[in-house]
Amino acid sequence: MARASNQLGQEGAAVAAPPPSSEASKLSEEVAALTPLTLDELRTRWRKLFRAPAPAHLPRYLLLRILAYRVQANALGDLDWETVRFLDAVAQDWLKRRAAVKTSSKRPPPIPPVPSQRSLKPGTILAREHEGGLHRVMVLDGGFAWNGATYRSLSEVARAITGTNWSGPRFFGLRDKSRPALPRPRRRWSRP
Q1: What is the pLDDT of residues 71-94, one digit of tens each?
Q2: pLDDT by residue (tens digit) across 12-56?
Q3: Which phi-psi region, left, alpha or beta, contains residue 160 (left: φ > 0; alpha: ψ -120 to 50)?
Q4: Do the bridges between strand 125-130 and strand 143-146 make them parallel or antiparallel, or are there none, so unpaired?
């Protein structure tokens, strides 16, 4: 099926142009044709559509709904990335609230620990608000770009933004704010 061109709506989000009535009826028929398929037939259809085997744990009703969504998204256009990020944030918030209710304490849900090995892929944009200004840094293959200049490390970028020495990963929220200090071993003096 031909993809409809996306246009920007009033809010700036991508809005799919309505398909012509003949394409809309074909799309409706294609989605309706999924309903009578058996589980094995839905998995075969999944393999053709996604070019990968269907997850074995998915029940028939979920396979059906996911396939129907994908058929419609292929014909009309998928969600834009901003909407996907927003929906992911809503889902994460819901999971945190659900976990907080289960513990029945008045404490907010715990914040997951930051992974020790964090690799930033080129093209990633890091954002940090500092002194009323929003600073965006793009990760490059060999460094970081900020305000038209290239820097070798995030710490150099943080120093350029603040004018003081900062840990770049800490400044951009990639590391814990404070780690408990390791206790120093007591030095025992022995008398000769």
Answers
A1: 998 888 888 888 888 888 888 888
A2: 444 555 556 788 888 899 999 999 999 999 999 999 999 999 999
A3: alpha
A4: unpaired
How is 108-162 classified by DSSP, letter by letter? PPPPPPPPSS--PPTT-EEEEEETTEEEEEEEETTEEEETTEEESSHHHHHHHHH
Given a cut of 60, is residue 68 above it in pLDDT?
A: yes
Q: How far apart are CA 134 and CA 148, in angstroms?
A: 15
Distance from C-alpha of 137 to C-alpha of 153, rounded to nearest angstrom? 11
Nearest to 63 by CA among 84, 88, 87, 38: 38
DSSP secondary structure letters along 73-109: HHHH----HHHHHHHHHHHHHHHHHHHHHHHT-SSPP
Asked if 77 and 4 touch (Cβ cutoff 8 Å), the reply is: yes
Segment (H or E) for 177: none
Distance between CA 39 and CA 64 in Å, rounded?
Answer: 9
- Contact between 45 and 33 under an 8 Å Cβ cutoff? The reply is no
Global confidence as pTM: 0.40
Please state, in angstroms and rounded to a whole number, the distance separating the CA atoms of residues 157 and 139.
Answer: 11
Element spanning 29, H or E: helix 21-32
